[in-house]
Write a structure and sequence with these properties.
heterodimer, B: two-stranded antiparallel sheet
Chain lengths: 156, 266
């Protein structure tokens, strides 16, 4: 247990080691550790951010799907409505067209009937004239008896 | 090996003698070459290693070596943060230096004492003690350096007047009648701090070395004694791992605590 010069030299050496550590070893190492801690914290924050983004994106997608579904339903409904409307209209138009055709046919039939009656009337008048001529054994002058013939014709 | 000695006392005395070199007149002007050389070599190796790791240190995924060094740095940093709340950025590096230096110097105790002594003897060193912390000069050098830092931080934080005021006015009070008692109390504290700080480490390491020597003496009693001694030596070595690390840790913690206490206002 002798205290001697060794102690002072050891103290100087200790001081040198402290200086060396404080200058060359401590700052870079703690900086590296702190930088890494920051990087890890940033990474975790970014992961959390990503998870939140994913959740919001999923929510948005669900919204979009619901919206698209609603729109599709709307379109189908519109189509349905349009179809029924068109069909009703077509039915109405078809009915009107049918009625028109029927009416035209009826009119034509009426006309035809009138013409046939007229024809028949003329023939009956001619027959009557011919019968009367035969009975009278002489020519009935159509010119002379036009008044009489017209009266008969109108009576028929 | 012990057979080459006349008796156990000579064996132990020889192993506990320093390799001294007088550099001037009187007992003080002597240098313990073994203590200085060993501590300088392992200090330079250790801090050189740390420096090499630091030079390649990067913030990304660390290599195993870097992770190991960072573990030590982080450990010391956490301890310092839990004790010291001051603003000085020097305290943590001081703690790291203290811890690492004391640890490697203590760890020299793991080397088998007689094997190394035989090798050194062959190399021309008759007397050589290779555990620097088992030399009271080393532990006093460390403790007095810490003592100096303590005074330095006390004056830095409180000012010279504040420090002197505290010497006379705490812990009992500022009444002039109490001044001598306060001063006496503070002086006792200031003396006991470096004494206990250094002697605790010295005592542990010196006793450890001595027990290794006592166990080593079994080798003089024949083959059975040698085997028995080897088993004892193994047991003590394993236990010594704890002591080496624990004493380094305690030394570092006391260093931080003393410096932190120097910052406190009373």
């Amino acid at each position: 247990m002798n205290i001697n010069l060794t102690m002072l030299m050891q103290a100087v050496g200790f001081g040198l080691f402290i200086w060396f550590t404080a200058k060359f070893i401590w700052p870079p190492l703690t900086r590296a550790v702190e930088t890494r801690q920051k990087q890890i914290a940033d990474g975790l924050a970014a992961g959390e951010q990503g998870r939140q983004n994913l959740a919001s994106a999923e929510k948005r997608i669900a919204d979009m799907i619901a919206e698209a579904r609603a729109k599709a339903g709307e379109i189908v409904a519109t189509g349905e409505k349009f179809r029924s409307e068109t069909m009703d209209q077509a039915k109405v138009e078809a009915r009107a067209e049918g009625d028109r055709i029927i009416a035209a046919a009826k009119a034509e039939i009426q006309q035809e009937l009138a013409r046939a009656k007229e024809q028949l009337r003329n023939q009956v008048a001619d027959l009557a004239v011919a019968g009367a001529s035969r009975i009278l054994k002489r020519e009935v002058s159509a010119k002379d008896h036009a008044e009489l013939l017209a009266a008969i014709r109108s009576e028929l | 090996m012990a057979a080459t000695y006349e008796n156990p006392t000579e064996y132990i005395n020889h192993h506990l003698s320093f390799f001294t070199q007088p550099v001037g007149p009187g007992g003080f002007w002597t240098v313990n070459v073994d203590t200085l050389l060993t501590s300088a070599v392992i200090g330079v190796l250790t801090f050189g290693f740390l420096w090499l790791v630091t030079r390649k240190a990067k913030a990304g995924v660390p290599s195993r070596t870097q992770a190991f060094v960072e573990l030590a740095v982080d450990f010391v940093n956490e301890q310092v943060k839990s004790i010291y709340n001051g603003s000085s950025r020097m305290v943590a590096p001081i703690a790291l230096t203290t811890f690492v230096l004391v640890l490697v110097m203590n760890a020299m105790d793991f080397l088998p004492i007689d094997v190394v002594a035989t090798g050194l003897h062959a190399a021309g060193f008759d007397k050589y003690r290779f555990v620097p912390t088992a030399d009271v000069n080393t532990t006093f050098a460390l403790a007095l350096s810490v003592f100096g830092l303590m005074i330095f931080y006390s004056i830095k934080v409180k000012g010279l007047g504040g420090w002197i005021h505290e010497l006379f006015c705490s812990p009992f009070g500022s009444n002039p009648i109490l001044w001598p008692f306060n001063l006496l109390f503070n002086l006792v504290e200031y003396v006991s701090k470096p004494l206990s700080h250094s002697l605790r480490l010295f005592g542990n390491m010196y006793a450890g070395e001595l027990i290794f020597l006592l166990i080593g003496m079994w080798a003089a009693t024949g083959i059975v004694g040698t085997i028995f001694g080897a088993v004892l030596d193994l047991g003590w070595s394993i236990f010594h791992i704890l002591i080496v690390a624990l004493q380094a840790y305690i030394f570092m913690m006391l260093t931080v605590v003393y410096i932190a206490m120097a910052h406190e206002h009373h």
